[in-house]
From TrEMBL:
Ranges of residues in domain STAS: 1-107
Record-stated family: Belongs to the anti-sigma-factor antagonist family.
UniProt source species: Streptomyces glaucus
Pfam families: STAS_2
Highest taxon, organism lineage: Bacteria
Listed InterPro entries: Anti-sigma_ant (IPR003658), MlaB-like_STAS (IPR058548), STAS_dom (IPR002645), STAS_dom_sf (IPR036513)
Record's protein name: Anti-sigma factor antagonist
Amino acid sequence: MHIRGDHAELVVGGRLDVRSAADARTVLHSAVDDGVGDLVLDLSELDSWDATGLGVIMGAHRRAGRCGRRLVLRGVPPQMQRLLVATRLYRILAIEGGLGVETLPRV
């Protein structure tokens, strides 16, 4: 997993899973704490995530809310869109451009 960017926009690539969760959490929390306004999380280079990785995203979302910020997901790959729909988290998370929920296969 790799994350690059600053307190306004981060690009996440590779796998966001149990092995990378602690490092990702540290980077995301620092970005939330050090900035103002929306924090854009570009997931276009993300290969996969598991429940732990999704938990890291949700933790950053909650932390951003407590700091008066908003976590915005950009470039969510289709397989991850399906997971957001299956878990109904697409209703909670800010997703740039929204999801084509009606075009995704049912899970």
